[in-house]
Amino acid sequence: MTAQTAQRGDLVTVIGLEVHVQLETDTKIFCRCSTEPADDPNENVCPVCLGLPGALPVLNEGAVEAAVKIGKAIDADIPEETRFHRKNYYYPDLPKNFQITQYDEPICQEGELEIAVEGERRDVRIERAHLEEDPGSLQHVGGSIDTADYTLVDYNRAGTPLMEIVTAPDFRSASEVRAFLAELEEVLEYLGVFDAGRDGSLRIDANLSIIESEEADENGEIGVDALEAANRTEVKNISSHKGAEKALAYEETRQKNAIERGRVVEQETRHWDESRGITVSMRSKEEEKDYRYFEEADLPPLRVSHWKDEISIPELPTARRERFQSEYGLSEEAASKLTSTKQVADFYESVAGEFDPDLAATWVADNLLGELNYRDMEITDIADRLEEVTRLVELVAEDEITAKNARETVLRDMLDEGKDPDTIVEEAGLGKTDDDEVQSAVVEAIEENPDAVADYESGDDGAINFLVGQVMQKTGGSADPGDVNQLLRAELED
Ligand SMILES: Nc1ncnc2c1ncn2[C@@H]1O[C@H](COP(=O)(O)OP(=O)(O)OP(=O)(O)O)[C@@H](O)[C@H]1O
Ligand SMILES: [Mg+2]
Ligand SMILES: [Mg+2]
Q: What are the residue boundaries of the Asn/Gln amidotransferase domain, all occurrences included (predicted)?
């Protein structure tokens, strides 16, 4: 970082994230209540997740399995043994007045995640990732958190398994944060431990501080002492990538303005108010000692050392992206699109295995994803119809229908009307017309349009397009326009 520009150039933005990921398990982390979205508030609850006195937690094996998968994916150290602690705080979303979480022996330590920023790859360090229970959710009625008339409490969410992933303060801009969140979500979905479509499944606390560039060394690196000494704010209540970007941009400007005016940035917890697009001060930052962490005596320490050998994870997006380029000769852009979710990548590979990889790429990346996107759908919405899509690609590969008809009629009707490709081809008469029929349409078009023929013969090459149009009309659009063009020219030569 060189201090060439005045004032603002002298300040470095430092960001670290705490990302709370809801793990996809059937039941909650310490009881057997369902994690499915419920119709009514306080429906999926029991003495354990309501925190009634005397109720005892039992750890959900599925949550630990998911945590180990995440640990392997971020190349974290998974210790011999992991423990749970009580983090004490008083707030209505948590009826026990403590949250069962992990403290100094979390299930994952010191991992990393590779991201690409402006074409350059680099690692973001993950300090730790630990398991904990989600608190209940609060609904503020008649305003925001600081202005509401009253607040309703819903414990359906209480006890949903969470993985809190804590990054090192390695980000220097909101766009790096965006790249990280996108990559993280992709990885989590590949692992099958997370559903991005679920409301509130990813919630972010964003920590931001502004540090004078004099604190940085010649490589722009800022030392641990300076990072620790800096006053940071922690912005809570961010539930989307967009929200994170906006909240960080707001916070960056707010802190820089304060510094430029000679004011001190308070170390505090702030709340992101999505509807107003601002962060508001909530409280001074609580310190570790405020939480009176102590060991959760109701849960014995858990030996996890052997789990990592027994649990396997699939090929991850970055590796798969690279393999798609080398194995199928795809561009980086196509490979990225085709690996954006595991389902898309798996489907691409099944199609590429049967037909030409390039044709498969056009069909999956451009046609299918394009039409799905237009309809606000995902590949998972047509999971049971992928065989039909493969059949459609086969019809094109075997030259039974034109690519244009396949794309513009068959695929669209498949998605809009739920019919299978063969039925659509038959009903709409899209099967490629046989050569005789095309040939006689060519002869007819020439006989019926002497003016266009005369124009063509006197050197107006454009007149051929009119004749092509006539033939296409006669064959109901099922002839190949390029072939028709050739046939017309050949016929007119004679
Ligand atoms: N100078 C800094 N500027 C911005 N972020 C920082 C800075 N120093 C540390 N951080 C980030 O702050 C976060 C600290 O999270 P951690 O969960 O360890 O502590 P906490 O926020 O105090 O605890 P809690 O879980 O109770 O919120 C990390 O994401 C880290 O990268
Ligand atoms: Mg934290
Ligand atoms: Mg925090």
A: 346-492
